[in-house]
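User: Could you check the structure of this?
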Amino acid sequence: MDSTVHPVDERLPSGKLAALGLQHVLVMYAGAVAVPLIVGRALKLSPEQVALLISADLFVCGLVTLIQSWGMTQWFGIRLPVMMGVTFAAVAPMVSMANANPGLDGARMIFGAIIGAGVISIIIAPWVSRMLRFFPPVVTGTIIAVIGISLMRIGINWIFGNPVGPTAPTIINPEHKQWLDAAAAAATAPGSALPPVPKDLALLPKLPNPKYADLTGVGIAGVVLLSILLISKYAKGFIANISVLLGIIIGAVIATLMGLMTFDKVGKADWVGLVMPFSFGTPSFDPVLILTMTLVMIVVMIESTGMFLALGEMTDRQVDQPALARGLRTDGLGTLIGGIFNTFPYTSFSQNVGLVAVTGIKSRFVCVAGGLILIALGVIPKMAALVESLPTVVLGGAGLVMFGMVAATGIRILAGVDFKTNRHNSLIVAISIGIGMIPLIAPNFKQWMPHGLHPLIESGILLASLSAVFLNLFLNGAKGDVQATINAAKQAEAH
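Assistant: Sure, the predicted C-alpha cells are below.
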C-alpha cells in the first residue's frame, strides 16, 4: 500500500473488495429487508407489491451507500466506510399510518411523508449537526430503547402467526362479512332504495382465530431463535455476525420441509426487473405526516452524527463540520430517493460500523462494493419474491432478536449515563419510557383529541423523543459533550 494514501481511501484488489463487500451485505441483509416486509404487510399489500417494496429497498440501499461512501459533489457523502439501510426508527409511525389507511392510498401517503421529510432533512442537515447538545446519551439511549420495545410487538405477533392484524387474535365472522358485502352490492345497484354503506364502516372481529398461537408456528419460531443463539455462542467472527440471517435460512428450510413455505411466486418472478419511481402512483402530501416523519429523521440524523464521529475515530480520519453536514445531507437525500422509489427513510447501519472495528478494514471502497452488490440484488425480482415468501413465524423468531437488539442498544448507551450523581437522569428515562408506552398499552387514548394530531401522537417513539428532549432541557440544561456522543455511538456498535 502507498504510504501517502490514507487507509480510508485505499483501493483493495477487486476480488478482496467483492468478498469484503459481500460480507457487509450479509451482515445487514436481514435488517434491510425486515422494514418493507413489516410495512408492506401492515398496508395489506399483495405479495407482488410487497416483493416490489423489497426490490426497491435493496436497490436504494445500494444507491445511497454509493453516495455516502464514495461521495457525490461537495454536498453529499461522508466518504467513510458506511453502509446505508432503512431505519427502524420510522417503522412504528409508518405502521400507524398503514393501519389507519391500508392499501395503495396509505402507501402513497407514507411515500409522500417520506419525500417531504427527505427534502426538509437535506435543508436542515447543517443545523442538525450542531444540535448535539440537545441529544446527550440519556436522550438517545432512551429513544433507541423505546424504538426497540415498540417494535417487539411486531415480532411477537409474527411468532403467533396472526394473519388478521397487528394485535387482535380474532377474525371476522364469514357470515357477517358475506351479509355486509351483499348489502353493499345491493345499495349500489340501480334504483336501489338502500342508502349507501357509510364511509369507514367495518365489522368487528369476534371469532377466535383458529391459527392464533398454533404450536407448529411457535415451534418454528423457537427453532429460529435457538439457532441464532447457538450460532452466536459457538461460531466466531463473520459467521457469528450473520447469525440472524443464518437463523432465518434454517427456519425457511424447516418451513419448506413442512410444506409451509412454497416457491410458486419465486418461479413466476422475473430474473431481471428495473426499479421504477412512483410505482404505487403519485404520492399524497399530508403536512402532519410530513412533520411526523421529519421528527423521526431528526432523531435518525442525531444518531448518525454519533456514528460518524465514532467511525472517524476508528479510521483515524477527522470528521469536521462540513463532512458531518455532507453525511447528514445524504441521510436526507437517501430518504428523498427512498420516497421516490417506493421505499423508506435511510440511515447508516450500526452493525456495519461495528464490522469495521472487528475486521480492521478501513477502506470506504469495501462499502462501495457492497453498494454495487445491493443494487444488483435489487434488480433481481426473484430475490425479493424469495424474501416475501418467508412465513411470518420464521421472521418472528428472528424479529425477536433484531428488535430486541435495538432495545439492547439503547440500554448499552444508557449504561454509560451517570445515574449515581445525577438523579435527574433517572427521571428522564423513567418518564419518557412511560410516555412512549402509552400508544402500545392504550391505543385509544387519542379518541377525544383532534383527528389531525392522531398521526403525530400515535407513535410512542415520537412521544418518547419529545419527552426525553424537553425533560433533559428542563432538568439538565443543554450541555454539549461531543465525546459523550462518540462514546455512546461506540457503545451502540458493540455486539
